[in-house]
Amino acid sequence: MPPPADIVKVAIEWPGAFPKLMEIDQKKPLSAIIKEVCEGWSLGSHENFALQIADSTNFYITEKNRNDIKNGSILRLTTSPYQTAVQLHERIQSSSMDAKLEALKDLANASRDITFAQEFINLDGISLLTQMVESGTERYQKLQKIMKPCFGDLLSFTLTAFVELMDHGIVSWDTFSVAFIKKIAGYVNKSAMDIAVLQRSLAILESMVLNSQDLYHKVAQEITIGQLIPHLQGTDQDIQTYTIAVINALFLKAPEEKRQDMAHILAQKQLRSIILSNVIRSPTPINDEMAHQLYVLQVLTFNLLEDRMMTKMDPQDQAQRDIIFELRRIAFDVECEPNNGGSTEKRKSMYTRDYKKLGFINHVNPAVDFTQIPPGMLALDNMLYLARHHQDAYIRIVLENSSREDKHECPFGRSSIELTKMLCEILKVGELPSENCHDFHPMFFTHDRSFEEFFCICIQLLNKTWKEMRATSEDFNKVMQVVREQIMRALTLKPNSLDQFKSRLQNLSYTEILKIRQSERMNQEDFQSRPILELREKIQPEIMELIKQQRLNRLCEGTCFRKISSRRRQDKFWYCRLSPNHKVLHYGDLEESPQGEVPHDSLQDKLPVADIKAVITGKDCPHMKEKGALKQNKVCARMCLSVCVCVCVCVCLDTWVESMIFHVKVC
């Protein structure tokens, strides 16, 4: 039979004796178990003893954690936490450097256990350690010339014990003096300092800043980012990690008025380049803690955009309206007219026309578009950055879309606003960093204006995807969903630079996204299960018939097409539809575009379906083989078709205009 659940079989060690195998009854008080163990080895005063886990942690067994003991665990009988704390409290004050060093080493190890830490702190141990740092350092430094390794170890173990004790959260950070802060900051500011001492000092400064607003101000007076930069230029990744952690802490706790100044320092090419070359592109692989600190720095930097993101535009603010005027001037410089030319109504009409071409929702007063938060004024900032720093791309996007038919144009203004909002969501602008996230992107450390450059790449992607999807204004949300997927998939690949990110996006066309989606669906276990396959096979004929009927219904409804000549498009139309009995194609010319269906009996020309001998598509169409036709129509060649009867009616479908275009010739 298995032993009762409350009985745990363990081995217990005692120095100088053979280990004992015991069955511990978890219902009995821990003190009774310790007493039983002591009696087995004829040890008196059982209250001065305790049990520890016999592994590298050496954690004490208490009533709170005793249920963690498992069958087969190895325990150790040792002195109680109180007795150990008293002994170490006395030993670290020894006049012998060797004895003091050994005691501090033991203290650093023991301080990881919260049970011991509580006892040592109750003996005013924290105050003793800070006094040793404040006043004892000078005495240690006198010995540094003759005992340099010993000095480094003494200070290192002192600071390690201090950090371990404080990490338990028992003592408030607000209790420390300015003298202690100055000492710790002095170790960080020294050009040549023991690595272990420097690491502990940086850890202490980070904790001070994060846990006390008052200490933040005191630390900020002693430490500047400029003084921390040399520590990033070394090769020790732990030192680099703690240095960036201190920078993040100073950044996070800085008052609003100082945060922008810090951001300016962080955005400077020197610091960014040092982090990029010495940390991100270092031969040493980035560990999880460094990745987390880089992620935190990335988040804090982007969070500086929150103010602009949550700021509405004031339609009456002339300075803000001038930015919109600047966008118009750059895009339509050749079309601008001086203010003193023409009537006010004419100028208003001209502005309205241009604002419509720029893709604003409100053509009369586009400032209203930027009253939505988020993204507020941040969207306008991005648009202006694109117009000034990537002027060719900006003008190409605006003019390319303004020359399209209204139904197919990609509205630059609306797209920029929604894209900025999307990018803020992707980068979680305004949210505090997650404690366990390591998701930093190296490319954001390669440019001083990384968010703006990110936007410039993505707005060009949006315009490209819009064309690939042959989208209309009704497809706006669908296009944004595809663009979001393209961006997320490219970011998942962790490109090292913005150029690499742009290259990855080039490979993620709309067609490729559809292929990926289909592949992912096909690879899903449920999709390949036998019931699904059987169901698909069963309903496929019904689905194919449904598709056939839908297409026939669409042919019966008919479509209006623009007529074109060999020179230019004409404002004439013709209509084609299938008869209700599906036997005849009716078509004929119209004077204007109809508002609804055109009755088939009003269309003069007919083409019996039975007379159709063949249907030719693409560049093989006869009218595409004419001299210069294929060269001029490469874009729409794949959309062409020819219906071959006694005469050949050649049809060219142009995806870049409001409707399809029929081009009729006799072969």
Automatic annotation (TrEMBL):
First and last residue of the signal peptide: none
GO molecular function, one term: SH3 domain binding
Pfam family, one: ELMO_CED12
Keyword Cell membrane on entry: no
InterPro entries for the chain: ARM-like (IPR011989), ARM-type_fold (IPR016024), ELMO_ARM (IPR024574), ELMO_dom (IPR006816), ELMO_domain-containing (IPR050868), PH-like_dom_sf (IPR011993), PH_domain (IPR001849)
Keyword tags: Apoptosis, Phagocytosis, SH3-binding
Biological function: Involved in cytoskeletal rearrangements required for phagocytosis of apoptotic cells and cell motility. Acts in association with DOCK1 and CRK. Was initially proposed to be required in complex with DOCK1 to activate Rac Rho small GTPases. May enhance the guanine nucleotide exchange factor (GEF) activity of DOCK1.
Protein name, UniProt field: Engulfment and cell motility protein 1
Lineage of source species: Eukaryota, Metazoa, Chordata, Craniata, Vertebrata
